[in-house]
Amino acid sequence: METKELKQVLNGGEFLVNEADPQYMFIMDDMTEEQNMVLNMVREYIDKEVLPHAAQIEKLDIELTKNLLRKAGELGILGTSFPEEYGGFMQDFETNMAITEYFSKTRSFSLSYGAHTGIGMLPILYFGTEEQKQKYLPSLVAGEKFAAYCLTEPGSGSDALAAKTKAILSEDGKHYVLDGQKMWITNAGFADVFVVFAQIDGDKFTGFIVERTWDGVSFGAEEAKMGIKGSSTRQVFFENVKVPAENVLGEIGKGHKIAFNILNIGRIKLAAGVLGGSKLIIDHSIQYANERKQFGVAISSFGAIKHKLAEQAIRTWATEAAMHRASRAIDHEEKRLKDSGKTLAESLLGAAEEYAIECALLKVMGSECLDFVADEGVQIYGGMGYSEEAPMAGAYRDSRINRIFEGTNEINRMLSVDMLLKKAMRGQIDLMSPAMAIQKEMTSMPAFGAGDTGLLGTEMDYVRNMKKCFLAVAGLTVQNLMMELQKEQEILMNLSDMMSEIYLCESAILRTKKLAIVKGEGFIGDRIAMTQVFINDSIERMAVSAKNVAAAWAEGDTLRMLMLAIKRYTKHEFVNTKNLRRQVADTMLAAGCFCFND
Ligand SMILES: Cc1cc2nc3c(=O)[nH]c(=O)nc-3n(C[C@H](O)[C@H](O)[C@H](O)COP(=O)(O)OP(=O)(O)OC[C@H]3O[C@@H](n4cnc5c(N)ncnc54)[C@H](O)[C@@H]3O)c2cc1C
Question: What average pLDDT does range 2-13 have in this prediction?
Answer without folding.
Answer: 77
